[in-house]
Structure formats: structure tokens, C-alpha cells
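Researcher: I'd like a candidate sequence for this fold, 467 residues long. If you have to choose between options at a position, lean toward the conservative one.
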């Protein structure tokens, strides 16, 4: 998520400064074994990774398209370009970044955010990370913040150990697609006991139409360590649909803590289909904070696998669906060990005929005695044409547990509007205030600078919502 006084992700949509003529390589449309081998060869990968890709490709071809969730009929895999290389190299100095790329990210305030509030930053344009940094204060403690491609080269055995471990290629069709054509993303390793007190940020931008972005992110937080990772996502206004299908695997070791925040503001012709899962060991804690705006359709269900005694998981999710949008979001909490706890708070806002859905799974295994789960789903409808649905599933295999689920659907009340407008506030501003109050408890989970930007994005989305 970029921070910039006077500008924001909300205000920058077109990215006209960067054309496809500037790319170093663009694959031909369509997916084939040739394309996969081409990607692997470009990256000079070890043979085992190529074999992983080819195996995943076979799985992808064998799996049917999901019949549930959002309408995916607009995706044509034969028209998508699966690999676009915008620059020859990744740069560690902002001054070395090519001017046309720099202009794209400078408008989004990346450099300013890096200097003020971040421990490190990665920027990805289409298929490749083009710029990356990590402040010396953290690198001297052994913190690694690399592109996934760098991680594979520098730590091949570690990547081989954890790659596809909690999100196997066979998990779903789009996880298989990612495993076959992944490029870019982040590799993060935090050594035992290290507390990275400032966030790490990755910024992902799709800059070419009819293309796919398939980043792969792996985060390993060793025993007693702490880290907060933030990703921001945007794309310009295209005339043709594009596809974003990322995979995130996070490993939280004994007593460690990780927070993963997504602030998504894709343009409304992006299919956003993401698989993200965390494996939490004894006394560890995982927090997903997930803000979803933009995109044509989103399917995303952050998951926590509570594998160690006393492990904790939180998923805090917000989705805003406008006209011609379907946000199908939610969470999964898998309790495998005793004395584990999970909390899922999901808030959705639907306006202009948009549709939001909560889709959740809570599974408490036979060994997970004395575990607790709480699910709260709140939906706010801003007009009669909009829609909200809830699809919860609870699977409980132990009687010594506590499971709670509550859901509410509400609309902006005339009495609320009257109260605010009677004090000189316009109707549009009154609606914004009510919406911001509705999501306030989730926004509080963000660092101050990001909370301010999140509220700005909400205000931007709410503009013109009257009538």
C-alpha cells in the first residue's frame, strides 16, 4: 500500500507512462508446456523446480473450473499472456530503475513510503520484481526480504522444503496454475527472536491488459520472531480482462507472530483468485488483515492451520462490492491441536447492485480439545439492488470446545442520516462517516499511515454513491 500526501492508489488508474513496447520479453498468449519451460529457462531454475511446474500444469489441465463462488466464464486461458519481463534486472537502488518504470511507481508514492514507514520494500510490475530494498537495521540481524526468484537462488534447500507444503498444487485449479507459471513474489525469513518493528511491503501492479500475474510468496517466521508484511495491489483501466492468481504460504514457528495485510484496489476488469494459508506451531500467532476493493470478481479465503498447542489465528476481512462486482471472500480456521483459538471477523459493504459473499470453514479436529472459535459476519447494504450472502461451514469433532457464529445484515438507517444531516453534514459525507464507522475496528489493526490511506480509499469508493 503506497502512502503519499496528496495522491494515493485511489487517484492513479491509468499508468500511461509504460507501454508494452518497453518490455524485455512478452510470452505469446496461451498456456503450454513450451511456455512453462520458457519461464523456467528465463529464470535459470534448478531442474526440480521445472519438474514441479510441469507436474502442476498437468494438475491444472485435469481440474475443472469451480462451479461455485463467482462467475468465472469471462476467463479465457488461451488469451492470457503468462510471462512479461519488464526490465532486464532487479534494482536495489531507486536511482538505477529505468525512468519509465520509476514514473509508474513514483506516482504511487512507493519511495516516500519506503523512507518514512517501512523496513523494506519490493515492487513487482507484471511478472517480475523490479526494485527491492531492506534497511540495514534489519539485514544485520539476518532478516531476508528477497523476491521469490532471489530466494530460490540464495536458499534453494529452504525453498524446496517449504514450496507447495501447505498449498499443494492439487489444492485447487488456480493453485495449480500458480505452481505452474509463478513468477515474482516475496521470500521472507525472520531469524529466531528478531522483532521487525516496521512493516515489510510488497507492491504488485498489473500493467498490461490480457495478462496474468502469478506471484508466489513464502514467509518463514522462526521461533519467537515477529513480522508484519503488507501488500498493495493495483492495475490500470484496461479494455480486456486480466487475471491475478497468487499463492501465499506462511510458516509461523513456536512462539512467533506474523501479520499479513492486503490492501487490494484492482481495476474492475481483474479476476482476483488467490490462495493464502498459514501453518502455526505451538504458541504462535497469525493475523490476516484483508481489505478487498476493486476487481471484477474476487475469491479469497485466508486460512490458518493451528497445528501446535495454544496456537492462535485471526482473520479480519473487509470487502466492498460496487456495480458489476462480486466479492466472494471469507476465511478458514483449521484446529489440529488443543487449546487453540481462532477469531474471524468479516465485514462487507455492497452498493450499486454489487454482491458480497462470506464463505467460511471452521474445522476442529479430534485432538483439538479446549479450543475456541468465534465468527462474526456483518454486512451493510447501501441500496435495495445490492446483495449479501453468507455460507458458513462448521465441522466439529470434539465435544470439549466452544464455537460461536453470529451474522447481521443491515442498511444505512434514515434516522442515522437525519441525525448527521441535521448537524450540517451533507448526505454523501454522512454516508461516508457511517461506512467508516462500520469498518473502524478492522482499520485500527493497520499502522496509522495505512489506516489513513485505507479511509481515503473507502471515501473514494463512496463518491457518487447517492442515487
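Model: Candidate sequence:
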Amino acid at each position: 500500500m503506497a502512502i503519499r500526501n496528496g495522491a494515493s492508489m485511489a487517484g492513479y488508474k491509468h499508468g500511461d507512462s509504460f507501454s508494452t513496447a518497453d518490455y524485455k520479453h512478452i510470452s505469446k498468449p496461451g498456456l503450454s508446456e513450451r511456455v512453462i519451460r520458457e519461464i523456467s529457462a528465463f529464470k535459470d531454475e534448478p531442474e526440480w523446480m521445472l519438474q514441479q511446474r510441469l507436474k502442476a500444469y498437468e494438475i491444472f489441465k485435469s481440474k475443472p473450473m469451480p462451479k461455485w463462488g463467482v462467475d468465472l466464464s469471462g476467463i479465457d486461458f488461451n488469451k492470457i499472456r503468462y510471462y512479461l519481463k519488464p526490465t532486464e534486472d532487479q534494482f536495489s537502488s531507486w536511482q538505477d530503475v529505468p525512468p519509465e518504470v520509476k514514473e509508474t511507481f513514483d506516482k504511487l508514492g512507493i519511495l516516500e513510503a519506503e523512507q518514512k514507514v517501512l523496513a523494506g520494500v519490493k515492487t513487482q510490475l507484471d511478472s517480475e520484481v523490479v526494485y527491492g530494498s531492506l534497511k540495514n537495521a534489519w539485514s544485520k540481524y539476518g532478516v531476508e526480504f528477497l523476491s521469490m526468484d532471489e530466494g530460490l537462488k540464495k536458499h534453494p534447500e529452504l525453498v524446496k522444503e517449504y514450496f507447495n507444503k501447505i498449498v499443494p498444487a492439487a489444492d485447487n485449479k488456480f493453485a495449480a496454475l500458480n505452481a505452474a507459471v509463478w513468477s515474482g513474489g516475496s521470500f521472507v525469513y525472520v531469524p529466531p527472536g528478531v522483532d521487525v518493528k516496521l512493516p515489510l511491503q510488497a507492491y504488485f501492479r498489473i500493467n498490461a491488459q490480457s495478462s496474468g500475474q502469478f506471484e508466489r510468496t513464502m514467509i518463514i517466521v522462526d521461533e519467537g520472531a515477529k513480522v508484519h508484511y503488507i501488500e498493495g495491489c493495483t492495475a490500470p483501466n484496461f479494455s480486456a480482462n486480466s487475471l491475478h492468481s497468487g499463492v501465499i504460504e506462511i510458516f509461523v514457528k513456536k512462539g512467533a507472530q506474523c501479520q499479513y495485510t492486503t490492501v487490494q484496489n484492482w481495476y474492475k476488469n481483474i479476476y482476483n483468485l488467490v490462495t493464502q494459508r498459514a501453518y502455526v506451531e505451538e504458541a504462535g500467532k497469525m493475523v490476516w488483515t484483508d481489505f478487498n476493493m476493486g476487481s471484477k470478481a474476487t475469491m479469497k479465503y485466508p486460512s490458518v492451520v493451528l497445528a501446535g498447542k495454544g496456537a492462535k489465528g485471526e482473520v479480519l476481512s473487509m470487502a466492498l462490492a460496487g456495480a458489476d462486482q462480486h466479492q466472494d471472500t471469507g476465511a478458514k480456521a483449521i484446529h489440529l491441536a488443543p487449546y487453540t483459538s481462532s477469531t474471524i471477523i468479516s465485514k462487507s459493504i455492497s452498493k450499486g447492485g454489487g454482491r458480497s459473499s462470506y464463505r467460511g470453514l471452521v474445522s476442529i479436529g479430534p485432538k483439538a480439545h479446549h479450543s475456541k472459535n468465534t465468527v462474526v459476519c456483518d454486512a451493510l447494504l447501501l441500496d435495495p439492488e445490492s446483495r449479501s450472502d453468507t455460507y458458513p461451514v462448521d465441522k466439529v469433532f470434539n465435544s470439549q470446545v466452544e464455537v460461536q457464529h453470529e451474522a447481521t445484515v443491515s442498511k444505512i438507517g434514515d434516522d442515522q442520516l437525519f441525525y448527521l444531516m441535521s448537524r450540517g453534514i451533507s448526505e454523501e459525507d454522512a454516508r461516508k462517516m457511517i461506512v467508516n464507522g462500520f469498518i473502524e475496528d478492522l482499520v485500527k489493526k493497520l499502522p496509522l499511515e495505512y489506516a489513513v490511506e485505507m479511509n481515503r480509499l473507502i471515501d473514494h469508493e463512496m463518491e457518487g454513491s447517492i442515487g
